[in-house]
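Quick one:
INPUT:
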């Protein structure tokens, strides 16, 4: 386990702490005694305040001895409740002897759950890849969308269609889509059918089915889209007609 990059001895200097934080790039350290007992935490803000108040880089660290922690057998509910606290961005995980065995960040916790992975407090989180859960907003000729989840088997989006705008008439070979209208009114072309849509209306778009949503009103349409399949790239969009010349 590579947890050492998150730890520092209680006898270390501020300069050593700065160097260690620069290595782990998470902005915090877990302070250990010589017998591997966890005795406190230290973050980059603490170090800055010490230096501003006149401490020298060669001085010993001063750390917070009161900190939130988990035990390896703690419940999922306790983990959730602790991460709901505004100031908690990471949690050390201790065994019954008070020894540090693991550490998990809030970003890792959210990523593991949102992407359907199994959470086990005994697993090594230190090298756990944090998947992107802060997607950008992407503009399109018809409006914009924001992805809210993207994994190997699902993508979800919130999509806004501007007034008198429309998606292209299109289909997908490798994904199906599930739409729920949350705001506005318009029309959906689904195969050979034309369907009026409004808040609460659900539309299922099977693989290989031509589909289009048209906003023929002066207000935005907002809908959620859940895509299920094995590929979600833009090159799986087959356009048959397009108001904006992309077909």
């Amino acid at each position: 386990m590579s947890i050492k990059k998150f730890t520092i001895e209680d006898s270390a200097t501020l300069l050593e702490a700065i160097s260690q934080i620069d290595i782990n790039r998470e902005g915090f350290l877990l302070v250990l005694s010589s017998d591997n007992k966890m005795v406190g935490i230290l973050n980059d803000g603490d170090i800055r305040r010490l230096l501003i108040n006149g401490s020298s880089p060669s001085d010993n660290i001063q750390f917070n001895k009161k900190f939130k922690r988990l035990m390896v057998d703690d419940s999922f509910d306790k983990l959730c409740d602790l991460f709901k606290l505004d100031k908690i961005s990471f949690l050390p995980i201790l065994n019954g002897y008070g020894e540090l065995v693991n550490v998990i960040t809030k970003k890792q916790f959210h990523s593991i759950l949102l992407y359907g992975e199994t959470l086990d407090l005994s697993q090594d989180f230190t090298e756990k890849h944090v998947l992107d859960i802060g997607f950008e907003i992407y503009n399109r000729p018809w409006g914009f969308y924001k992805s809210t989840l993207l994994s190997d088997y699902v993508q979800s989006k919130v999509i806004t269609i501007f007034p008198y705008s429309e998606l292209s008439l299109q289909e997908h070979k490798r994904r199906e889509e599930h739409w729920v209208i949350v705001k506005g009114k318009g029309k959906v072309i689904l195969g050979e059918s034309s369907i009026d849509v409004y808040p609460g209306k659900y539309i299922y778009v099977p693989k290989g089915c031509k589909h289009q949503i048209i906003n023929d009103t002066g207000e935005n349409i907002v809908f959620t889209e859940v895509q299920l399949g094995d590929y979600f790239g833009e090159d799986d969009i087959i356009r048959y007609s397009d108001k904006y010349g992309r077909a």
